[in-house]
Amino acid sequence: MFEQMVRPLSTFPVLDTQISKKINLLDLTRQQMRKFFISMGEKQFRADQVMKWIYRHFCRDFKKMTNLNKVLRDKLCQYSEISVPEIVEEMHSRDGTIKWMIRVGDQSVETVYIPEDDRATICVSSQVGCALECKFCSTGQQGFNRNLRVSEIIGQVWCAAKIIRDTKVLDQRPITNVVMMGMGEPLLNLNNVVAAMEIMLDEFGFGFSKRRVTLSTSGVVPALDKLGDMIDVVLAISLHAPNDKLRTDIMPINKKYNIQTCLVAVKRYLAKSNANKGRVTIEYVMLDNVNDSTEDAHELAALLKNTPSKINLIPWNPFPGAPYGRSSNSRVDRFAKILIEYGFTTIVRKTRGDDIDAACGQLIGDVVNITKRNMRKKW
Fold it and tell me: What angle do CA 115, 118, 124 make, to 5 degrees?
């Protein structure tokens, strides 16, 4: 499915006054938006002004953009729009986590806001469903429908940031971090995800530091190699097993891109990156009596010996019909202790939002599965 999902960047749409469909400005990076303004006979700096209105002031009404002249405002109303996804449900966890069900077309995805003492992170989806079928992940059991557009990805951040700003609840921090860890495999929607992350990093967009935007991938190696030439963000690898045999059993993608192939690609990415400070984040979900033994810990340490890594141990979050159990705290602590003794920075991730099914691996949205009709094993 990799060949189907990752395509060359689409050419910029030439302004055609005969076409009735308006261009959604949330689909455009700053470079693309500048070209759009030039195509209307305007100076490119006007695009920068409009981006500030959209992403800093959350303004969708061109008539309220007071530093634009009336002629330009009228052009924008005629040829473009600022269309954001619709939030259809909001759920609050007892720990402060918020989950939004966001409509995208006739389906929906889920987005999660996670407040902490010194930060607030938003977990963003990249696809409607997921084709990778990781056995421990609820999203992977839903099947795949389609890639999200740039506007549907960056729109999740826009909606969440506006809600947090407008509610003005004292214990809700403004968003400081973005993780591409929601529904879908980001590298199977490479171009749209990269464009959305460009807007996240852009000084006229959300202006996040590249060290505060993380992309998590199961290891689609060809796309990972392309990513290194397109953008620099923090990289996280969903590893979840210390050897190929086990990883193939729980993550079918390993049949195509095994662990060593993935780790070699990681090193190529790190060589191009400043955001990662020379090391990759390894994600490892803790499955009771599956991958959490002392032998597994020693094997994982040996596997990563030559790969500078920070390891996140993730307590598994249950979902109906799953064949796994969560590792006990004692097994997780023992596993972490072994890795620390080998010199790895090791963090046991705190489960957040599990009471509203917003925790890692629990997002499902509303997905019409077309995976089987699209020949799911082509990635």
Answer: 40
Range of the domain at 142: 86-378
Of 356, 179, 131, nearest to 283 (Cα)? 179
- Cα separation, 13 vs 23, in Å, equals 8
Question: Hey, is 316 helix, strand or coil?
Answer: coil
pLDDT band for position 352 (50/70/90)?
A: low
**Cα angle 106-133-359, degrees, rounded to a multiple of 5:** 75
Same domain? For 172 and 299 the reply is: yes
Co-location of 324 and 187 in the same domain: yes
Contact (CB, 8 A) for 280 and 309? yes
Average pLDDT over every residue of 173-179: 94
Higher model confidence: residue 87 or residue 118?
87
Per-residue pLDDT, averaged over 224-228, amounts to 97
| Same domain for 154 and 58 | no
**What pLDDT is recorded for position 220?**
98
Closest to 125 in 3D by CA, of 350, 240, 107, 135: 107
Give the predicted TM-score (pTM) of the model. 0.90
Among 65, 81, 97, which residue terminates a domain? Answer: 81
Catalytic member of 130, 134, 137, 360: 360
265 and 224 in contact (C-beta within 8 Å)? yes
Which of these is catalytic: 3, 90, 110, 159? 110
As a whole number of angstroms, the distance between CA 114 and CA 22 comes to: 34
Assign 364 a pLDDT band (cuts: 50, 70, 90): low
Give the CATH number of the domain where residue 297 resides.
Answer: 3.20.20.70
| CA dist., res. 328 & res. 11, Å (int) | 51
Identify whether 13 is part of a domain.
Answer: no
Residue 110 annotated as catalytic: yes
- If one counts the domains in the chain, the total is 2
Residue 123 annotated among the catalytic residues of the structure: no
Q: Using a pLDDT cut of 90, give the percent of the chain over it.
A: 73
Distance CA 99, CA 111 (A): 6
